[in-house]
Amino acid sequence: MFFVLSKILAPFLEPLTYIVLFALLALISFHKPHLSKIFLSLSLCCAFAFSTPFLPTALIRHLEQRYARPEPLLHVDAVIVLSGMVVLEISTPDKIEFGDNSERILEGIRLIKQGVADKLILSGGSGSLTDQTKSEARMLRQFAMDFGIPEEQILLEPDSRNTYENAVETAKLMRQHGISSVILITTASHLPRAMGCFRKVGVEPIPYGVDFHSDSNSHLALSDFIPEIGNLRGLTWILHEYFGLVMYKAAGYI
Questions:
Q1: pLDDT band at residue 7, thresholds of 50, 70 and 90?
Q2: Claim to verify: residue 113 and residue 175 sit in the same structural domain
Q3: Are residues 245 and 205 in the same domain?
């Protein structure tokens, strides 16, 4: 039920939804000029605020700075790589199409090759509401093997649909194989939610963030207040992460 609800509410986290909504309300209320101007002003204000780099950068920096990358890395039993990087709709086992966050699997492979861990755990099935026939973990196994990771070093958790299920199912896999010490690799802004989920199921991983989108040493500049259409996508993505934190907390997942 929680998985379905999260998918239903997803459109309400799209900044463009509110820009268009206020614009439509302005159009509908054209016979009431005062009200129409209010809605139009709200639409323009949202368009400006949501499309400047300042807001998404500030929000994402807050999450990315929660966990520093550990140095030096100690040897562990396994590296866990969370899914969320493959465009499953157009991917096949022989040809994977990556979207964002491909650094997750690349860094996992690198750590295994460096001998930081003995096993590579790939966690994640499909996040689709309607199609559960494909599994991202299964596709990533072949990708890892193509990059030189022996099949016997790879463990799969191929069925989870979200971060909480990642944690629950991976914890079961760890118990089955006697694994206790792990590094958790995911996008840096996703680490707070992922770490909360794993701790909830009794696993205390070493956090390892990748795919950073902010610079902790940067300062405000004029360019931070210049609108760009691409910032709408960035804000959508980070709002989903904050929404996930709130919902997971409410559901008792973290």
A1: low
A2: yes
A3: no
